[in-house]
Design a protein that fits this description.
491 residues, alpha/beta, Arginase, Chain A, 14 helices, globular, disordered C terminus, binds zinc ion
Length: 491
Amino acid sequence: MYVELPFDELKVSPDKRRIAYFYDQDVGNYFYGTGHCMKPHRIRMTHSLIMNYELYKKMEIYRAEPATNLELTQFHTDEYIDFIDRVTPDNLHLFPREAQIFNVGEDCPVFDGLNEFCKISCGGSMEGAARLNNGSADIVINYAGGLHHAKKSEASGFCYTNDIVLAIVELLRKHPRVLYIDTDVHHGDGVEEAFYTNDRVMTCSFHKFGEFFPGTGNLTDIGIGKGKYHAVNVPLRDGIDDASYKSIFEPLVKTIVDWYQPSAIVLQCGGDSLSGDRLGPFNLSMRGHANCVNFVRSLGLPMMVLGGGGYTIRNVARTWAFETGVCNGVILPKELPYNGYYEYYAPTYELDVRSSNMNNANSKEYLDKLLTQIVSNLDHTKHAPSIQLQEVPADKEDLGDVNEDMPDAIDTKGGSQMQRDKEVERESEFYNDEEKDKGERNVFEQDKIVETDVPKIDESKDVEHGVTLFEHEQAEIDQLNKEGMDVDGND
Ligand SMILES: [Zn+2]
């Protein structure tokens, strides 16, 4: 089953895709604290490389409107968002109970501007989803997003609000099935959990497993209820290299896409799976990492590219810049252009992140076992998504029925939509000034959808409830975990 493919030179197809790239120049100013390894500054470094490689000539650059508290509560609880919105380093002592419940502290410190940082991150991903939905972009990019550990009412692993879940919820308004792929070295637990009982989202996470944060993501975790077989976990060992990663990533993603037939793909590109990461033990080169972006792009589906982890920041910036090139159908030259952070790239001043000679603990036998088991699980997804395989109307006007039946579409027609994609005034020469295709995120006016507003059709329930684990479902998961069994009862 597993065949090791050679890792050849990366080739991108030069065909033109319309790219919307989201960047907020405030994002690099947020600071988790001295000694904390999450550094939003890496997003600014990435942006500087992107601009100096002149990729702005190829794509449209936007600053998204920051998400509102109301938008954030489309996944998170009101109490949690209220806390995130109000807490500051100066008043944290007034919230001892909340700090504990919502898990802020050491890994997830309260820093100045935390709420703004969360809103920038989520705003970009939600806006990106809106642009994919309205067809004004083929690929959207938000490196301030990808914060996959955040839970419904809990911060986790340097993540506070889950832009990915919010973006997928937005995509579900138009797309019957969405595939989420996570190449961060850590398990994409927050996204998996949000859709664990849902068959309209398939999550697929490639990650280091075994005595490693967050501890979840075993091969046997495959989803429950309607979501059974719609969570895919690829638990990897230390030192995976470009050839092994490609050889498991490509056939697996291809099988999922062939059988599940998603109409949009969200790709989390966490840079901590790169060789030499401060936290991650993988051994991917920049090109091995970017091969995932290139492969998913080659599938030709609407695609969202997000950031994520990544703690050797010069390598994260290199790789995300290179991957932005790949999205645009170009291989960036090795020699770094002069840029605002040039000294970070000493001593080589080259683009490439190379792999090391570390041992690859993923044997061919091990990878074969993984691939065989996962593909046999996927066999169940082949014919029976609860929403039948159907053509999604290409024309926005044809979506009338779908929109009216979706709970979240209520109240979006009376002028309550916010103006989106307000473009940056500063650096305006880099920013596209077309307004006509701007995305509109669907916000509703009431604080909550009240029971009577929930429309009748079944699939809309998926949107409404799919991001929430019911109590009994959580109990089922807890029980299974306690027993150490997989959900099939196999061992
Ligand atoms: Zn990570």
